[in-house]
Write a structure and sequence with these properties.
about 400 residues, Rossmann fold, Nucleotidyltransferase, domain 5, Arc Repressor Mutant, subunit A, seven-stranded mixed β-sheet, about 35% helix, globular, disordered N terminus
């Protein structure tokens, strides 16, 4: 037995699994894997499997997702000898389908594969905390791996060992890395800029993940807000981000007009929604709101956008009976165009372009029960190329 510090708590854990169960199982919650590791998936998995944290043979390697959403990752994962477990998701709670399937399989392995003594869980989702506790009841050794430290404190504390993943320096045990707390308003600007640079999904739920990646200690309550949504609205009122309310209640985001204004001259916003905001610092000078920047014109014509959309859907395999969701298509278009900040790919404009493409016979656009959209290349567009837009 040895003492290690994991997260913020100190407790006694085993340094390795029991000798009669030398093998390990790697279970990947693919929905929780960030864009950063997905972009170099084979290399990142090779680093993980060859690292010192894994002792013994990894006899089970599985990744869980609704693979209709990630067709471009099927070949790289298969080449890395990862068993792809298809967890089809329907309705509003589609994320839970993957979590439930992974948890069921993990518990099944406890009984049918007794030689597995270590479970390596690649996820930062707090929903798996109950699974971790149950596996430990059966005497299993649990190693958690969180991508760039964006993991819940609860999961970190429940695992026997938890490692934060850093693409440049490799793996570091939680508790061995010192974190400097950043100013939350500067952090939100930095996070949005990184999301734009990486071609990430520009939504408020993703924004919090990226902020916790950059500063694992970030908590909106430290800034005086009891919900992240209120913090985002306040950032919008300060002019740090631009917000557009989406049908699902989230916000589409982009960099704001005041993002590069020095902190001392930052826009003082209107009173906080919900009354959570602390009293403003009266020593901070109030400045007039800067005129809104003129909306940039899209750099692509509608015809060029249609052609790029066709190429993206072919690359994603969304042809015939197969389809992809709008977010995946938007990410692929951004990647193909090389123009991360192109106004044509802003959420509202992109959805309008999809509807125009549907009306022009370029794609089939299907609205899901959860208000999202699936799309695939229309049969006529596969053979004949992209028709010119009407008018």
């Amino acid at each position: 037995m040895r003492e290690t510090i994991v997260g913020r708590s100190q407790r006694t854990v085993r340094s390795e699994p029991l000798g009669d169960a030398p093998n390990a199982a790697l279970l990947i919650d693919f929905d929780n894997v960030t864009m950063g590791i997905r972009s170099d998936l084979q290399n990142q998995l090779r680093k993980l499997l060859n690292s010192d944290i894994i002792k013994g043979k990894v006899s089970v390697q599985r990744a869980y997702a609704d693979w209709r959403r990630y067709p471009q990752y099927i070949v790289p994962l298969s080449e890395a000898s990862i068993d792809l477990i298809f967890a089809p998701a329907f309705g509003a709670n589609k994320k839970n389908a993957t979590d439930i399937r992974l948890a069921i399989d993990a518990l099944e392995l406890v009984f049918i594969r007794p030689e597995i003594g270590t479970f390596i869980l690649l996820s930062g989702d707090s929903d798996f905390s109950a699974l971790v506790l149950k596996l430990k009841e059966y005497g299993k050794f649990i190693i958690g791996v969180g991508i760039r430290e964006s993991a819940s404190d609860l999961l970190v504390q429940n695992c026997d060992e938890y490692y934060s993943y850093n693409e440049l320096t490799g793996l570091a045990k939680e508790g061995e890395v010192e974190h400097v707390r950043k100013d939350p308003w500067q952090l939100v600007v930095e996070a949005v800029q990184r999301m734009q640079r990486d071609g990430d999904v520009m939504r408020s739920d993703r924004l919090k993940q990226v902020m916790q990646t950059l500063d694992p200690n970030f908590d909106e309550r430290d800034a005086g807000y009891n919900r992240f949504g209120k913090f985002v609205v306040a950032a919008g009122q300060r002019g740090l981000v631009k917000l557009a309310k989406m049908d699902n209640g989230q916000y589409a985001i982009e960099i704001g007009a005041n993002a590069n204004v020095p902190h001392a001259q930052e826009l003082v916003s209107a009173p906080q929604v919900g009354g959570d905001r602390p009293s403003p610092d009266k020593s901070r000078p109030r400045v007039a709101r800067r005129p809104a920047e003129e909306a940039a014109a899209p750099s692509l014509t509608l015809s060029e956008s249609f052609e790029l959309l066709r190429k993206a859907l072919v690359a994603l395999g969304a042809v015939g009976e197969e389809s992809t969701d709008a977010d995946q298509a938007r990410e692929k278009l951004t990647e193909l165009s090389g123009s991360i900040g192109d106004p044509a790919f802003e959420p509202k404009r992109f959805l309008r372009m999809l509807r125009q493409a549907h009306d022009a016979g370029v794609i089939d656009l299907i609205k899901r029960d959860d208000e999202g959209y699936q799309l695939r290349l229309a049969p006529a567009a596969v053979a004949a190329g992209v028709p010119e837009p009407a008018g």
